[in-house]
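Q: For a teaching session next week I want to show students how multiple molecules come together into a single three-dimensional assembly. I've collected the sequence lines for a complex. Could you give me the predicted structure tokens for the whole thing so I can convert them for display?
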Amino acid sequence: MLEDVSDLLADPVDGTALSSQDGYRSLVSAQGRSYEVCADGFVTLAACETLAHDGDDAQMVADRETFLSQGHYAPFVEAVTQGVHDALDDAGVGNDIAPALCEIGAGTGYYLSHTLDAVDDSRGVGIDVSYPAVQKLTTSHSRVGAVVADALERLPLRDECIHALTVIFAPHNSAEFARVLAPGGSVVVLNAESGHLRELREPLGIMDVEPGSTERIIEDMAQYFVPVQAPQLVEFKMRLDQPSIAAQIGMSPSARHIEPEVLHQRVATLPERMDITARASITRFVRPAE
Ligand SMILES: C[S@@+](CC[C@H](N)C(=O)[O-])C[C@H]1O[C@@H](n2cnc3c(N)ncnc32)[C@H](O)[C@@H]1O
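A: Of course. Below is the structure for the complete assembly, covering every listed component.
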């Protein structure tokens, strides 16, 4: 709930603290800017009325929820949760501090809610630019505060308030990550690698992940962050039936390039069940020692 994370949130215009008004019906800045908390329990924190990006649409969000709820990505969730545990250990976040987590491009809250379950007394801000995603995110966990915001703009978070920030198949904003991370905190990045879903590329006509994408993230982050160690590959097979394959493609960027009817026809030509490769790397970033 927003109440759990309100001390972490900030005005997206000038970064000043927000306080609740009318029992969390709105969040208000010292300058009097007011951000309405909608009946579903999330808030839009944006400097402009129209967001520059729109993120996943309702069908992509529905497909994401269908696919992730089947547990196929469990090794990815475990790797991210382990990364957050390592981050909190390194930051020395102990029993006296409630760990503050944030996921950028949090989607339906699948990863963030698992991590919150695994880290005692933690609370988490989930940020996504997609309204249908944030509607799901709001109810994903009792300790999630859900915010609609563009992660490529100023983040609606106070300076140095987040102990571990996760970015899972989502956009990066290294300058803002550096600003909001508490001293000693980490950014945990899960990024798809070339070969992800390789068995589906040809029959469905979807593009491969460009080789070198993790190296490019490391370069983008290099002004503010260094990796703690080399990216760790997480690779495993998923046994997927046709509806799960359709949901997997429906939640991915390929969904934007293939008409749903065409995808449906191509999926119908596949075997009833297939063993599909999932392949991503996890990298934990920290600020370099001064
Ligand atoms: C591939 S999905 C990953 C979602 C989630 N991390 C997961 O793995 O289940 C990317 C997410 O980033 C969101 N997104 C895209 N551009 C964004 C932006 N500029 N700011 C915030 N979120 C964004 C999308 O709406 C979508 O929910």
